[in-house]
Specification:
With 268 residues, the chain is an all-alpha fold. It has a single domain, classed as MetI-like fold (Orthogonal Bundle). The chain is built from twelve helices and no strands. The longest helix is centred in the N-terminal third of the chain and has 34 residues. The relative contact order is 0.15.
């Protein structure tokens, strides 16, 4: 084991470096002073970061992505909290089916979801509208909010709630002052992860978004179809920075190890 230890560390380091290399290259290209895609050799420049302000389409798309991510994540929590409490606490007929239904968007390719949403929203008159885009994002981010909220609800000590009830607290008071604060870390982390998923989503959104509801990833996708310059690299670097900050906050609030391996989740 002593001989395999350094080899395993070196192997894992190579994998991490291979995965991070494209991200590092994109961030470096964003600082080039040249008018074409190249790594900065002699000097670093903020030229292409300042150029973002001259393209109102990117700024408008950023705010659309921000509001869309915040609203879809908040609505996902409204669905995830009661669903998580019901699945974690009670055994009833259809419990596993309900859990599978909420998590099913994770198993469907986003291209298929995009085509389905495009057809459905066109039929009901929501095609090209922000409300339709919001509903589509709600579907794909809800599993992420549910996953973390369910982990918190499953690991919660019910004795604390029973103690509050024995002291005369009403059901609403127990929910508001005991249950929700106890599962708050999972709720906040679920919201953050759902926001990241919504903010970075492009495969499904490109089918549903219209010129007035373009998100930032969709705007970037359309831009690179006609232009090849470092502007999209600078926008990508900003998106990467936002994602990294959100992941750091998620790790501080909940712990990425618990998210990835399900630590602390117990089946009732």
């Amino acid at each position: 084991m002593s001989r395999n230890g350094p080899l395993a560390i070196a192997f894992h380091s190579c994998i991490v470096a291979f995965m991070l290399a494209p991200i590092v290259v994109v961030c470096l290209v964003a600082f080039t002073p040249e008018g074409y895609l190249s790594l900065p050799v002699s000097a670093f420049s903020l030229r292409w970061f300042r150029a973002i302000a001259r393209y109102p389409e990117f700024v408008a798309a950023f705010w659309t992505s921000l509001w869309l991510g915040a609203l879809s994540s908040a609505l996902a929590l409204l669905v995830a909290v009661p669903a998580a409490l019901a699945i974690a606490r009670y055994r009833f007929r259809g419990r596993d089916v309900l859990a599978g239904l909420f998590l099913s968007p994770l198993m469907i390719p986003h291209v298929v979801l995009g085509v389905a949403f495009l057809r459905f929203f066109t039929q009901i008159g929501l095609g090209g509208r922000f409300s339709g885009l919001l509903l589509a994002h709600l579907v794909i981010v809800c599993p992420f909010a549910l996953r973390l909220t369910l982990a918190s609800a499953t690991g919660m000590d019910r004795a604390i709630e029973q103690a509050a009830i024995s002291l005369g607290a009403s059901d609403w008071a127990v929910l508001r002052r005991v249950t929700l604060p106890l599962i708050a870390p999972g709720m906040i982390s679920g919201w953050a992860l759902a926001f990241i998923q919504s903010f970075d989503e492009v495969t499904m959104t490109v089918f549903v978004a219209a010129p007035g509801t373009e998100t930032l990833p969709v705007r970037m996708f359309l831009y690179i179809q006609d232009n090849i310059d470092p502007l999209v690299a600078s926008v990508s670097a900003c998106v990467i920075a936002v994602t990294v900050v959100a992941l750091i906050g998620l790790d501080r609030l909940y712990g990425l190890d618990r998210l990835l391996v399900g630590h602390g989740h117990r089946e009732p």
